[in-house]
């Protein structure tokens, strides 16, 4: 190991170890369920063995170091001066570390190489990081999704590099003397219908078959990854969770309860499943939280305006008229805001006289895990079995209703995941909000489509010569409109995510990701294909006369329809992220030099433009689009493979650089997606290529079997053998392990069951802050319970402080008594008996007075 700071190696050592500790803590927080898995227990055993070996090596190194010291003392001083002091300092720092921490120290030190002037690390030091020197194991410290993502890209790069060697074989199969067999005959446009004219370049079903193959590939890939992810979720329930149960394992979320329900009735109703520990009712305090947030915002704005007013007051003497205007404006704005604060406070005081009503939802926490699982199994049943149970066991099954309402029971979310203020909103209003949100997104997409169509129609009316720059400028304008629409969809989706008022944060994030991906896919692929094709131009003529009309002048589109399908979406989904990175760098330069925000880091810059929580799903979608569009047409297979190979390498190094430099100080790749290598990709690709061999070997509508003596067929056979090998090594082994682990996980449960206690995370309502600031009257039983809880917490804190003060006073009194006894022994030898008795009586009187004063202080 070589460090850059030779003058202060100890400081660098501490900074690197601190940074590694913070990184490990953040990853443990984000992936705490996976860190305490069964596989990690096996790793710990192996690490213990390594520690023993390293301890032996350390003992041997000490012996050798002692021998070297004795030998170095005998050597002359010139030999000792030739040694490198930096290496000695680094070796001493490494020896100070324990053997278990040495590997982490070596891996983390790769991330902190040299001190420069353009990046801030977690220890507030300016450092640069080398992208190529960091391995995937170093990047895995940021989270499991990072290493998985780069392993997936590596697999795709290996596949496409191997396919490049067989491009000659594919061109020989796809072309015949420089021409395709289907395009040898000329196609006339006279007396043709719309469908025959649109399929002129699609004779023998070449384009349709290739598009169907790619579409089936994408469907199978998504289906297999969903199954694999579901298996991993089942395994994570048993192996990758903590050794003990969590709070949500004891809790149950109940809906559709009557609003006037009481806790006693709920306790009696659910007690036949087991002992109930606590019942947390959800109240309609959403308006209180809104008013509180608004009041805080207004007060913060007043503070900011006063600070700005003080700044302008300092410049009053220099720029008298301008500063006076500013002074008057700030004074007026403060006067406008202060009555709003009073109105909000009055509204909150009016709310204190109203009773808090129940929203018909509650969380029931059982004492044991088995009772919660019984309750879930009792209510979460298929409808057909439910009907049979109502017929056969009507007496037992009548408890599904609480009063006159059918209740719904499901697993309770995590306490930190619940949005308590959104539980009072009904399903109808939530669906109405989702409908409004989708309508807004569709309207915006339709408006962008109209703008692109106008530019495309203007471009079609111009001359298409190479010297004419207007067509080129309009084409660039269309691409920039697409990028602006994509960026606007992200911003609006992020702001409208809270408009739907979901019950949990995870539902809010998942809904946002689905809407964002679908809108970007529509804007980047389907709309663009519709715009660039003459179908939009010919739609009016076709609707009136059922003839093509203007499409007669554009036969090139129908001749090269497959290539256009590949080229247009590929260019959009690949070039748009590059342009977005250029825009972010321009924004950073502007904010750093013009706005003078020198403390702005790269992560905070990128966070404002793109969401840090969900770039992994977007990046996976980009890779899938590239591969799907690459394989959608085999007539352009060699060229597209070369472009896709270069694109994957570019994405690999660009994303690796962004992970190492931008996202290393953030909570990136949180818990959204953790995909492993795409196991179905090599297998399905081999089947697709083998089927394509029979399809491309058609001549005069006769199918021919592969010839094992033909070199092109031998090349295909080698490709299939290699793909089967890759499928076995990377895909089938992992899938078999997943199936075996999931089957074992269903039978066993290694977690330790214990009764619910106060050590678990509690379902606390976010109303305590409002209680501390406002004094509400006691109206309603639930409000009394909440206020009593808050009072008990404050009483406990006051009792703890009282006990501490009591201990301190006792210690002081003991010290004072000991000091007095020592003084007495000293004076006893000097004074006479009568004088000593008089002093003793005086001290007794003083002790009685001080003890009474101490008792009063304690009380």
UniProtKB/TrEMBL annotation:
<feature type="transmembrane region" description="Helical">
    <location>
        <begin position="620"/>
        <end position="653"/>
    </location>
</feature>
<feature type="compositionally biased region" description="Low complexity">
    <location>
        <begin position="845"/>
        <end position="859"/>
    </location>
</feature>
<dbReference type="GO" id="GO:0003676">
    <property type="term" value="F:nucleic acid binding"/>
</dbReference>
<dbReference type="Pfam" id="PF14703">
    <property type="entry name" value="PHM7_cyt"/>
</dbReference>
<feature type="compositionally biased region" description="Basic and acidic residues">
    <location>
        <begin position="44"/>
        <end position="85"/>
    </location>
</feature>
<dbReference type="GO" id="GO:0005886">
    <property type="term" value="C:plasma membrane"/>
</dbReference>
<feature type="transmembrane region" description="Helical">
    <location>
        <begin position="470"/>
        <end position="489"/>
    </location>
</feature>
<feature type="transmembrane region" description="Helical">
    <location>
        <begin position="714"/>
        <end position="732"/>
    </location>
</feature>
<feature type="transmembrane region" description="Helical">
    <location>
        <begin position="673"/>
        <end position="694"/>
    </location>
</feature>
<feature type="region of interest" description="Disordered">
    <location>
        <begin position="1"/>
        <end position="99"/>
    </location>
</feature>
<dbReference type="InterPro" id="IPR012677">
    <property type="entry name" value="Nucleotide-bd_a/b_plait_sf"/>
</dbReference>
<dbReference type="InterPro" id="IPR045122">
    <property type="entry name" value="Csc1-like"/>
</dbReference>
<feature type="transmembrane region" description="Helical">
    <location>
        <begin position="510"/>
        <end position="532"/>
    </location>
</feature>
<keyword id="KW-1133">Transmembrane helix</keyword>
<feature type="compositionally biased region" description="Low complexity">
    <location>
        <begin position="34"/>
        <end position="43"/>
    </location>
</feature>
<feature type="transmembrane region" description="Helical">
    <location>
        <begin position="208"/>
        <end position="227"/>
    </location>
</feature>
<feature type="compositionally biased region" description="Low complexity">
    <location>
        <begin position="16"/>
        <end position="27"/>
    </location>
</feature>
<feature type="transmembrane region" description="Helical">
    <location>
        <begin position="434"/>
        <end position="455"/>
    </location>
</feature>
<keyword id="KW-0812">Transmembrane</keyword>
<dbReference type="InterPro" id="IPR027815">
    <property type="entry name" value="CSC1/OSCA1-like_cyt"/>
</dbReference>
<dbReference type="InterPro" id="IPR035979">
    <property type="entry name" value="RBD_domain_sf"/>
</dbReference>
<keyword id="KW-0472">Membrane</keyword>
<feature type="transmembrane region" description="Helical">
    <location>
        <begin position="155"/>
        <end position="175"/>
    </location>
</feature>
<feature type="domain" description="CSC1/OSCA1-like cytosolic">
    <location>
        <begin position="249"/>
        <end position="422"/>
    </location>
</feature>
<dbReference type="GO" id="GO:0005227">
    <property type="term" value="F:calcium-activated cation channel activity"/>
</dbReference>
<feature type="region of interest" description="Disordered">
    <location>
        <begin position="794"/>
        <end position="859"/>
    </location>
</feature>
<protein>
    <submittedName>
        <fullName>Transmembrane protein</fullName>
    </submittedName>
</protein>
